[in-house]
Amino acid sequence: MRLSKRAKSSESLSMNPELKIKNVQQSVLGDQQPATGNRLMQDWIKRFLPFISLIALCALIPLCEYFILGNDPKFLTPGNLAAIARQTAVITIMAMGMTMVMVSGGIDLSVGSIVGLSGVLGAMSMAPGTPSLLGFTVCLAVGAACGLGNGTAITALKIPAFIVTLGAMGIYRGLALYVSDGNAIVGLPESAGYLAEKNFLGFIPLPLFIVLTIALVVHFVLSNTRLGRYCYAMGSNIEAARYAGIRVSRYQIIYYTILGALSGLAGAIETSRTVTGQPNAGEGYELNVIAAVVIGGGSLSGGQGTVVGTIIGSLIMGVLANGGNLLQISPFIQKIVIGAVIVLAVTFDEFQRRRMESAES
Amino acid sequence: MKSPVPALEMRNIMKSFAGNKVLAQVDLTAHAGEVLALVGENGAGKSTLMKILSGVHQPDGGEILIDGRPMEFVRPVDALAAGIAMIYQELSLAPHLTVAENIFLGREPLKIAPFGVIDRGELNNRARQLLMDYGFDINPRTRLGRLSAAGRQLVEITRAIVEAKRVIVMDEPTSSLTSQEVSELFRLIRDLKARGLAVIYISHRLEELDEIADRLMILRDGRAVYEGKWGEISTDEMIRHMAGRELKEIFPARQAKIGGVKLRVTNLSRPPKFTDIGFEARSGEVVGIAGLAGAGRTEVVEAIFGAHPAVTGEIEIDGRKIDSVQPNVSVKNGLSLLTEDRKRTGLCLNLPMSTNITLANVRALLKGLMLQRKFETKTANDYIRKLSIKPPAPSKHVARLSGGNQQKSLLARWLFANSQVFLLDEPTRGVDVAARSEIYREINELAESGAAVVMVSSDLPELLGMADRILVMRRGRLVTELIAKQTTQEEILKYAAVEESQEL
User: Which phi and psi (to 5°) does residue A349 adopt?
Assistant: First the structure.
């Protein structure tokens, strides 16, 4: 280019546009260069790693069944898949709400206790004769009230969510045990079992249908509404969100209330599954729920996470547990494996993040 | 003074990130006992070059020689061991530790060496001695987090000086310092020169460089476009080298008609930060607020915006009194605040530019409950074009933009929010010359369109060039109001810095 020879001398005004165009072209070409291709590849792997892992697991488990145990592979039978769906439904429902809370930069350790408390109170309201729908509504309302309490305490007391909900975990569990005197609530109407057992349209397990509906709604909310947009903004930088005029406290309370309501729904399903109100129901669920979000790419520091990722995270844990049983692996070992998977998922995420950051400066 | 072998030589340094060439065969030489001014726009490659020097990044090609010996810096520790110290633009200190602990972090004097028991008395004494020698009035026992931005910067400088053996790199070291602290720093730099260190000084403030630089190197687009003795070329030529074009007017003229009062502040107080602040800003007017760091300027604009509770006094916008002063109410009333610290209170760094631009007015994107993605992208593109934000990619995360473009995205946020009163706190801090003049042009356009602009700045030429009136603050009070056209830097400084004893 003739012009570029003169670039070192002074009269750059007139040639500036050409120079710019040249730069643009270079960068467009640069996109096709292998180095940038690598970057795209990395982005792609990062995005789809949870999904790829899930597929790999689904292939690996039947192979192990066949070659190691010498059994006919049961894993991919419709019956087994439906069982996985039922087993993971409760965790997935709660994880949808947790995705929202964690994207917004919060966390809620009390969700397992909310399952117990809402289940007990729902069951108590379901004496024989009253319609079970009323009881399920009570579960939902109790859950929402618990979530509202968490959100209000976090924003009003200005105490970290971790601490507030750690306390709430004990409070709600204690309440569940206190009102039930530590015993299961029994003698529920027969219809109480419907929620967990009935099929939708005759063949879709009702919990699965509920999960899918909620997933669709939460996905829509997170990606297409103001509620979702503020969620990511607050998780990314809560001070910036406040300075942009967002009423951060109000939105935080909304996210926690939604999570509470979904935990109450999970409590309803648990109650229906056992046709009793167990004060210990949901114990330890909070860890599985948080793990599902994290394995699916959600970040403990907020601003990141998707519904699809969380579902995959939840399925990975469900498949690991189910596959472990099929392969007759000790449940103790299964716990170790799931723990390791959580650490690996977060490590991989951090590693990728650091790599991206160092490439930015 | 100059020894034949340079203290530092970087030869043919090359670096690409993900296919983008950031540095293309850059040579840099720094001699013992001289100050090398390194200038260039944001994104020219200065920071990358310095990160290679400090071992944060590894070069793709080229070599680094210290006193003629080739070195390889794989980690920051290696560079430190070779006598290279850095003062980072982004402060890198631990807020929960004391000043003394920060200065000696990693090199604490030990009492019972094998057990690693820290000799606290010795630590504090040494720190006190150092701070006194350097003329910094800071108590070494204070927790760092309690210091002002300027105080933290002084601690960072102290730490780097202690670490430096051969080369010291200062990246915008004066961004939050008062003029008095700056002159202390310059005295220190002269000491460092006399001790035979090579100083590499990065700054956007050309006046500052004029005082201390011996040699000049200009980077543009990852190449060294000029190297020579300081003073050989004029400021205009420097700017042309930096921008690759001429900048006739840094401060473009404004044809704004000054109209009615947009913002009125009466008796605003938040002791001990500031008391009894009262002023007004009219439509079409740019009001500047000058003062030393810590005079309460930032606190005042944040209070007007409602970022802090516990403020007394009255705020009126368009003649209407604002009852509840909170950011969300302010935004609704057409008030906006471009904050001083864009990373902490401005940007959602890991979200796309489009999200950041529309954040204060998401309502405008809604149709029913739905966010209209297409409209959002279009809006972002409009502002990207209007403010020539680079790269013009709405989906790009703002973390990947340069400082100037980040600032423009935030300005775009408030334009899209239809603000009528703009509170701009240090709007060009850490922004390169070309982006600066674009921001100035935008401020003028705002005033011309009838908005009121209140601008806090530590850059006096900027205030003189942009403001109609300049309010001067000292220790939380408004001390005077000056007409920009009829005043000078000296007069502003006189009001901003006069000693209490001289007052009556």
Answer: -60, -50
